[in-house]
Structures are given as C-alpha cells and as structure tokens.
Design goal:
Helix content: over 70%
Number of domains: 1
Largest sheet: none
Number of helices: 5
Distance between the termini: 21 Å
Structural class: mainly alpha
C-alpha cells in the first residue's frame, strides 16, 4: 500500500508535489486566519492572496524539479522559468493592483450619499501579493523542489 503511494508520487511528481505545496500553503492560511480572527473560514483555502504566495511556491517548486531532472539548459526548464516569472509578476503586480482597486471601490459604494449604486456583495480585496509574500512563496517552492 505505502509502496504503491510512493510509486504514484514518483511517477506523477510534477503534478502531486506542486499540488501538495499549494494545499499545504492554503491550509496554513486557513489555520492562520482561524488563530488570528477566531473565525473558521474554509473558503480561504480556495482564495488568492495572503502570506505566503502559493502561486509562487507552486511554480518555483515545479521549475526547480524540472531543472534538477532535465537540466537547466533544457528548453523545458527555460519555458518553466518564464512561466514562473509571469505568474509571480501577475501575483505581485496585476492582481495586487486589482485588489487595491476593489478596496477603493468598496469604500466608494459604501459611502452614504456618494453613489446611488446598489451592490449585492463586496468586491474581493485580497487578490494579489506583496513582493515579500511572493519572495517567501518562491523560497518555499525552491526548498520543496530541491527536496523532491
């Protein structure tokens, strides 16, 4: 049984390890929110944003594993590096800016007498990451990628 699980992980490590990294980081965020807010928010496991960046951890773990297995001179590693940079740029740049805009729009809509707009739900404000959150996620991904 355990041997079968180990063989499955080894055979599908490029899918299993990044998924486990993502799940572990998202679970950490749920537990951290529970400890700090005293509220259990299971939706947090699927939400973006926060410390550390699971997106960065996943892509860097995958890139590191590919670099170790096929070499850093391979085209696959090159594609993976570029993909990782795009994902991390998006997390710290574009999605973070969208989160800031959502926060501002929520304030505008909630200000009495300022707008006549009726909103049924607030916009999600935690979408992206600070550069530090992206860096920490990347470091976690590097360590996991080197281990596996």
């Amino acid at each position: 049984m355990i041997q079968g699980i180990i063989e499955f992980i080894q055979e599908y490590k490029y899918i299993v390890i990044p998924f486990l990294v993502w799940f572990g980081i998202q679970l950490f965020k749920v537990i951290y929110d529970l400890v700090t807010t005293k509220k259990f928010n299971f939706k947090r496991i699927l939400q973006a944003g926060g410390m550390p960046s699971s997106h960065s951890a996943v892509v860097i773990a995958l890139t590191t594993m590919i670099g170790k297995d096929v070499g850093i001179q391979s085209p696959l590693f090159g594609v993976s590096v570029i993909f990782s940079f795009v994902v991390m740029y998006d997390a710290a740049g574009i999605r973070r800016a969208a989160g800031k805009q959502a926060k501002l729009l929520n304030k505008i809509v909630e200000t009495p007498g300022l707008t006549g707009v009726q909103v049924s739900e607030r916009l999600v404000e935690v979408l992206g990451h600070t550069p530090f959150q992206v860096l920490v996620g990347a470091l976690i991904g590097l360590i996991v990628g080197l281990i596996f």
